[in-house]
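Hi R.,

Here are the chain sequences for the assembly we discussed:
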Amino acid sequence: TQLLEQSPQFLSIQEGENLTVYCNSSSVFSSLQWYRQEPGEGPVLLVTVVTGGEVKKLKRLTFQFGDARKDSSLHITAAQPGDTGLYLCAEVRNNNDMRFGAGTRLTVKP
Amino acid sequence: DVKVTQSSRYLVKRTGEKVFLECVQDMDHENMFWYRQDPGLGLRLIYFSYDVKMKEKGDIPEGYSVSREKKERFSLILESASTNQTSMYLCASSTRDRKNTGELFFGEGSRLTVL
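And here is the predicted structure of the full complex:
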């Protein structure tokens, strides 16, 4: 069974700082998604990456998919309190069901 | 606005009770899913369904069953609730996507406590 490992598990930073969180697998991803979950809500899709080496940007968020498609990172520039939440990576398996990592819980303090 | 609606945000049940968690989506999605979310374990797939009256076991189906009588509705059933089923339950739906890049749309979750 492929495991998705996310690191760090917890991250607490000040507003304006940069940060990177990671998602790693023991084998190759077919495609990978990042979701953000705010307290009391369900996860919401941020991005899907499919091609090895792919980089996608969403405002202050930069997503990278490793060349070998076994790892991914999410970098946030100048974090804001509104970025607070649980960041989840998920592997897309057959028929669109997902396997999720345990997540990185980010707190951005004003 | 697309929506996945879970019937109960918070439930408290006693050990041995039968529990129904209802989920309705208004996006005409073929696929529907039930996950449970526990701290440090992420989201784990319980059951999913690709079509009406179809169901497939996920990674942790023991102690659960599901029903999909209509396309828009997917119900999770705990026949005899136990304390280790205390958790946050998340329903999700997605359209069928042969490229396997489909987006999951989640409900707000149902937090179940079993005493």
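The first strand of chain A starts at residue 4 and ends at 7. Residues 2 and 26 of chain A are 6 Å apart (CA to CA).

Let me know if anything looks off.

Best,
T.
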